[in-house]
Structure formats: structure tokens, C-alpha cells
């Protein structure tokens, strides 16, 4: 049985939209991102075994790429970098967090950024993160350890 993009859209669009809105912080931008995720789905040639997980990860990566692009070409300074690193308090802390994350993630692969977002922001367990990104639990743990070590060099705790 083949499932169409329209079927996926009907079933999973609300979940993808919620994910995009959680990361981007803006409903209109989240709607645009959600549409773009489903457009990208048209180019997927492989069989999708777990569509909800696949779309959740696609939405996460797409939104993180939008955030990264926005920080390179800032159009709106508010709402930057993972909703101001999950609502950090004062503006000096936000500025410091933005600078540190840009520096940290600029030196690491995109998948490490996805892993950190899924684990620290979304609260997924190591096993859940491993399942989402296709790594072993030890691989996820190693990536997080590298990120934590680099953050400690900046004297910041995750």
C-alpha cells in the first residue's frame, strides 16, 4: 500500500506545524516552514518506515537551518537561536548565549546541533535521540560530551 503526500499532510501537518512553531517561535514562519517540509518530502525516494519520526526530524532540521540562515542574514533580531535558548532571562545573557551557540555550532556538524536540540530543548532521552538521528546511544552520548566539553571551555553549563 502506497501512502500519498496528501495523506501524510492530512495526518501529520499539525505535528509538523507545532514542531516548527516551537523552534521558530512565529506562527506565520512556522506555516511556511511546514509547507517547505512537505515540499521536500516530494523528493524523498526511499520508503518511509516511520513517517511521524521522519517528518519530525525533517521539520527539526529544516527549522534549525532557517534559524542558522537567519543568524547569518539577520532580518529579525528577536526570536533568534532556538527561541532565545529556551527563554533565557536578561538581554546580556541572550546575547552571550547567541554568540556562544553560533561559535559552538559553527565548529560542529549539523547533526550535533540536531542532537542537542532534541535532547536539551525537546527533552528526548538518549535512546529516542539515537533512534531519530540514526546513531547509536554511545554515538549520541559522545556528540553531547564533545558539545558539553566545548561549552565548558566557554564556562557555560548546558
Tell me the structural class: mainly alpha
Q: Give the averaged pLDDT, no decimals.
A: 76
Q: If classified by CATH, what would the architecture of the largest domain be?
A: Orthogonal Bundle
Low-confidence stretches: 73-88
- Separation of the first and last Cα atoms: 44 Å
- The oligomeric status of these chains comes to single chain
Computed over alpha carbons, the radius of gyration is 16 Å
Q: What composes the largest sheet?
A: none
Query: Which term fits the overall shape?
Result: globular
Order of helices and strands: HHHHHHHH
- How many domains make up the 3D coordinates? 2
CATH topology of the largest domain: Arc Repressor Mutant, subunit A
- The CATH superfamily label of the largest domain reads Winged helix-like DNA-binding domain superfamily/Winged helix DNA-binding domain
Total strands: the figure is 0
The number of distinct helices, counting runs of at least 4 residues, comes to: 8
Binned strand content: under 5%
Percent in helix: over 70%
CATH class of the largest domain: Mainly Alpha
Amino acid at each position: 500500500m502506497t501512502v500519498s503526500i496528501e495523506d501524510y499532510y492530512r495526518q501529520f501537518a499539525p505535528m509538523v506545524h507545532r514542531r516548527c512553531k516551537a523552534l521558530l517561535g512565529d506562527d506565520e514562519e512556522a506555516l511556511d516552514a511546514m509547507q517547505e517540509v512537505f515540499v521536500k518530502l516530494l523528493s524523498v525516494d526511499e520508503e518511509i518506515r516511520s513517517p511521524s519520526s521522519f517528518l519530525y526530524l525533517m521539520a527539526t532540521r529544516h527549522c534549525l537551518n532557517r534559524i542558522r540562515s537567519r543568524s547569518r542574514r539577520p532580518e529579525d533580531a528577536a526570536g533568534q537561536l532556538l527561541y532565545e535558548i529556551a527563554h533565557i532571562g536578561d538581554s546580556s545573557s541572550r546575547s552571550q548565549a547567541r554568540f556562544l551557540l553560533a561559535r559552538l555550532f559553527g565548529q560542529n556538524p549539523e547533526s550535533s546541533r540536531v542532537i542537542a536540540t532534541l535532547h536539551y530543548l525537546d527533552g528526548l532521552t538518549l535512546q529516542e535521540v539515537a533512534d531519530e538521528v540514526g546513531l547509536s546511544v554511545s554515538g549520541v552520548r559522545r556528540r553531547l560530551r564533545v558539545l558539553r566539553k566545548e561549552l565548558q571551555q566557554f564556562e557555560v553549563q548546558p
